[in-house]
Prior knowledge:
Layout: H1 9-33, H2 37-40, E1 45-51, E2 56-59, H3 64-67, H4 70-81, E3 90-93, E4 105-112, E5 127-134, E6 163-167, E7 170-171, H5 173-181, H6 190-218, H7 220-243, E8 248-253, E9 259-267, E10 272-276, H8 292-305, E11 321-324, H9 340-358, E12 370-374, E13 379-382, H10 412-418, E14 421-429, E15 443-450, E16 454-459, E17 480-484, E18 490-493, E19 496-501, E20 506-510, H11 520-528
Helix pairs in contact: 1-6, 1-7, 6-7, 8-9
Amino acid sequence: MYTTTQPDPVRLEIFKNLYQFIAEQMGIVLQNTATSVNIKERLDFSCAIFDASGLLVANAPHIPVHLGSMSESVRSLINDKGDTIKPGNVYLSNNPYNGGTHLPDVTAITPVFLESGVNNPCPMPIFFVASRGHQADIGGITPGSMPPHSTTVEEEGILFDNFLLVEEGNFRETAVRYHLSNHTYPARNPDQNLADFKAQIAANERGVQELRKMVSQYKLDTVQAYMKFVQANAEESVRKAIAVLKDGSFIYKMDNGAQIQVKVTIHPENRSATIDFTGTSRQLNSNFNAPKAVTQAAVLYVFRTLVDDNIPLNAGCLNPLEIIIPVGCMLNPTYPAAVVAGNVETSQTIVDALYGALGVMAASQGTMNNFTFGNERYQYYETICGGSGAGTNFDGTDGVHSHMTNSRLTDPEVLETRYPVLLESFRLRVDSGGKGQYSGGNGVVRRIRFLEPMTANILSGHRLVPPFGLNGGEVGKVGRNWIQRQNGSEESLDSTGTVEMNVGDVFVIETPGGGGFDHAEAREAQRVI
């Protein structure tokens, strides 16, 4: 006879993997049914399941910046819609001030009710499932909806704030199309938006079916109880990791002159930590402001990576952490501040600053190297890999997507088939990683030749400030963005920029290397011995 007051260790492991399996199944459906390159090829999406209060239970190994912030979106829906949430409804949300990351990342949220026919006179959702996908274009002032120079969130695209996408099983296509077009900067490819929304609905439906199957097999009270046990297990794992950490602080400058300042205070008596961002730059006039949910996601990611156990990233991981983010600073901005770079760039800086404060890892490339191009017909977005930082007993890795991004690059054949460009070369950037006893990973060089005139945008970091080394390790080499024109001339670009590309022009992106760890002399001494 099993009890739901204390977890059975074997069942705990079973349920932990079952919850993750459901999120993974959702991801498979989403990838298989999506049409956009962004979701189908680059895998820029995330799926997760949540308890009745909107707290994260489990996720598939998708995009960290999505997973740590999606719970805020679900809880915003619960607070906003409350008793009006009905079976068969699906909602869209991308509001950066209600749990969103930035506008292209649109979340579809589906409440899970008991199956019809079950005696439930006052139906309320028993769980929630959600999928977040990066839309190739959601409007805004530039194709791809990643404008380098936006100053308000309106310039970055169309806002969905708990928008009713499916009403009791009926897809509201007319309403969605109107919403995508009724804007100062409308979506450029609404057909693609709708196709990806439908893929997200399908992914969520798989989650609903699998959760109902669990309830049918194990009974509702057991499934709900083990959701709490899985969260409690994650909390205990994080507390164990915190117990061996020491206090630390770090200040990390960015190319735009802003700084992230963080102080980590460890409380050994209850194995908890306070993460205080006081001293961080005030809200910016640029788009490098990170929504509060993104900042929390970065903290959650760092502390999850310090755990050796195989646990799902969930709400329990946050319980031992007190996060202080002053209102009005660039990590907790107020509406209508622009945020598109905060999600993809500032989040990376937060992670590296935290690792620096804890003294466990040198900086990785610290940027996602966001490259977009397009016109009214084509819209494309990619993030580009670089070097990861070295740590206490390991070298960094060459040419990887690190930390808050976990997407992949589009295969050359797909890229060149779907868009009028030629991937001229893609190689490692030799000797760009910082030297040390453990050396940082190398960045890459990516050259894309344009076969039609288009607008291209780069939104990147560490073109001026190098990724730091730790304990005497050398810094990684900064990145570089430049254009090689058809006539042979070259144009250098800043960390962020918009440029018109003509036929035959080549956009060249050289990504940063990771920082080194410990003095290089120590490794040379080991070789001599």
